[in-house]
Specification:
Layout: H1 3-12, H2 23-31, H3 37-40, H4 43-52, H5 61-94, E1 99-102, H6 103-107, E2 123-126, H7 132-139, E3 143-146, H8 153-157, E4 161-166, E5 174-177, H9 190-193, E6 198-199, E7 208-210, H10 213-227, H11 234-244, H12 249-259, H13 262-276, H14 301-315, H15 319-345
Parallel strand pairs: 1-7, 2-5
Antiparallel strand pairs: 1-2, 3-4, 4-5, 6-7
Helix pairs in contact: 1-2, 4-5, 10-11, 10-12, 11-13
Length: 346
């Protein structure tokens, strides 16, 4: 899919004030055999906007059928996730804990309607670091812990997130976080995040929380830094937060400075302004970082690590924090190596 076609479709996927795409952009949905994940996750909103903008009569019937089927699949998946989360909330209540829903799990039923949800691969939840082990043990009743590489058990034990695969089909893949991203790179006061959370507006369960609009924006920013690109549907999520919620811009800037992601926030909003053709947010300033060229097509694992390091040094306010993270990562990998040697000689 061509780059401009991709962004025309993303702009059309705005839940608030969609921008009508050129006819060939919609035709590309029908012709493309392998849609980017970012577009696939937005298909229910695109399908809804075809009708709300009045262009359904001129859209190919085959396209409408395809989008309707994808929308129904996404709605079904989101409802399965919602039902599981409601059951899980009861279990959290029994141990006196709560969870903050992140990304798609947070935005569906709040920024996006149940009839036009944003697709997501899994359910992401954040718990207090002190409750991390208890919640992970709770997950084992319905899920199996996923270990990406059994040769990296030292690293696995210290990850900021754990993935859990469902034991049956009526449960989602779940990632339990004790931090929003890798430690050290950003200074995120995780425990204090709960002070400004609210109960998820669409869940009806006090144990299921969402971050404040300002912290949700910052989570999208630090997540984009971890992914190595701002060019994703995170821009749509940020646009909906800005459009539908009242943002305290002064508070957002102060929190970004506290977290150490002020530079990344400016670049993120610059990208939002450029890609979605929106009015520039109040805090958008002039910086050479705003035109930073991103390289996200990695040719080899070594190139990937180098690009990741370069990107993190560019985006983090405190360079020493990035260095500390990579030294800590090196320590964990050394632990993996020593553990494997111990197992070999046992």
């Amino acid at each position: 899919m061509e780059n401009e076609t991709f962004w025309e479709l993303v702009r059309f996927a705005k839940f608030s004030k969609p921008q009508e795409p050129a006819p060939q952009a919609l035709e590309a949905l029908l012709e493309s055999k392998c849609l980017p994940d970012e577009i696939r996750n937005l298909l229910p909103i695109i399908y809804q906007n075809i009708y709300t903008t009045g262009i359904a009569e001129s859209a190919p019937e085959a396209l409408l059928t395809q989008l309707q089927q994808q929308t129904l699949r996404t709605i079904s998946s989101v409802q399965v996730n919602k039902a599981w989360l409601k059951r899980f909330a009861k279990k959290l209540s029994h141990i006196g804990e709560s969870a903050i829903l992140l990304k798609g799990a947070a935005f569906n039923g709040w920024l996006y309607s149940d009839n036009a949800p944003r697709g997501a691969v899994d359910v992401d939840i954040l718990v207090k670091p002190t409750a991390f082990d208890s919640v992970c043990n709770l997950m084992l009743n319905t899920h199996e812990a996923h270990v990406a590489d059994e040769k990296r058990m030292v690293t696995h034990a210290q990850l900021f997130e754990r993935a859990f695969l469902p034991k049956h089909t009526l449960s989602p893949v779940v990632e339990v976080h004790k931090n929003l991203t890798n430690p050290y790179i950003f200074n995120i006061p995780v425990e204090k995040l709960w002070e400004t959370t609210i109960a998820h507006p669409g869940m009806g369960e006090p144990q299921l929380r969402v971050l404040s609009p300002e912290h949700n924006i910052l989570n999208l920013v630090v997540h984009a830094v971890r992914d190595g690109t701002f060019d994703s549907h995170s821009l749509i999520d940020a646009y909906e937060l800005i459009t539908q919620q009242e943002i305290n811009w002064d508070y957002l800037e102060r929190e970004a400075e506290l977290w150490g992601c002020s530079k990344a926030l400016v670049v993120f909003f610059t990208r939002l302004h450029q890609r979605l053709q929106t009015s520039p947010p109040p805090l958008l300033g002039t910086t050479e970082l705003a035109t930073l060229k991103q390289s996200t097509k990695f040719n080899s694992p070594n190139h990937s690590r180098i690009e990741q390091l370069r990107w993190q040094f560019k985006m983090a306010d405190r360079k020493s924090s990035v260095l500390r993270f990579h030294l800590d990562y090196l320590r964990m990998r050394m632990g993996d190596f020593l553990l494997s040697k111990k197992a070999f000689f046992r």
